[in-house]
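Notes for week 9. Today we move from apo structures to complexes. The key idea is that a small molecule is not decoration. When we ask for a structure prediction with nicotinamide-adenine-dinucleotide present, the ligand SMILES becomes part of the input, just like the chain. The input block below holds both the sequence and the ligand string. Read it once before you look at the output, and try to guess where the molecule might sit.
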Amino acid sequence: MNRLNSKIALITGAGAGIGAQIARRFKEEGAKIIINDVRIDAAENMAREVDGSAIAADVSDSSAVRSMFERVNEEFGRLDILVNNAGIAFDGNTEEQTRRLTEVPLQQMAELQAGGPIETHADVTVEVTDEQWHRMLGIHLNGTFFCSREALKIMNPQMSGCIINMGSIMGTTGGVAPHYCAAKAGIMGFTRSLAREVVTRGIRVNALAPGFIDTELVEPFGDARRLIEAQTPMLRFGDTDDIAWPAVYLASDEAKFMTGQVISPNGGFVMSQ
Ligand SMILES: NC(=O)c1ccc[n+]([C@@H]2O[C@H](COP(=O)([O-])OP(=O)(O)OC[C@H]3O[C@@H](n4cnc5c(N)ncnc54)[C@H](O)[C@@H]3O)[C@@H](O)[C@H]2O)c1
């Protein structure tokens, strides 16, 4: 309780999933919450739940992001915490992407077990369109940059603040989603660069790199879920609190010596990031 007393926190993509749970935990710890989501209904519902404010904006749209932070400055006059959480995993033909995630690895395993060469291939990169590539990087990487840039216009003069960026183990390990993995890896580089830059202003910048977490984002995994669980030493997906509590820690004064770091709750899937 009270680890974030009276802090003003903006969480992007907080209308559902991990962001929503971060909002709930931040609220319990005494923060005043601003919920961003591209879906206005989801943002407003969540804002009601945490007695906060809702601002609908697409984080990949720099002018919408600028307006959002101008509103934050007008209404609150300060910003203590920004969580760059908004994201997508699937885009376009979800059915085909799901097939690549589910059927392809299972088929490859069957071919290996049968002693033969692998004849089924994922072939993802040749199928990614310009639009899909730009949209994925636009939401994750550009969105993180746009929101951080605008947040710093408030945090720099106040000489304090905390930014938490949402990476993924996929940014380190890779996976059958080249645009998602590239965006998440980019977020890690951005986190470290920004952490060095703004440390002189008393602003800390860190990242979370979750493993597989039970939210709508991973629903299309279907049967591949069992495969992932079997590869995870803890034999399960994480729940949203597995990410929300580390976010509380990073946002709190307990993490006052932490900057440019990555915390990766992943059930042991990857043992170093
Ligand atoms: N669930 C996982 O296994 C997992 C693992 C690693 C990282 N992550 C990352 O965690 C973050 C949250 O994922 P989640 O699992 O909670 O997903 P989710 O789908 O449950 O929630 C994502 C939220 O972001 C919102 N959103 C999407 N595009 C947006 C945009 N352009 N602007 C503003 N809001 C937008 C959605 O409307 C949704 O409410 C993402 O960055 C994701 O890449 C998730």
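The mean pLDDT is 95.
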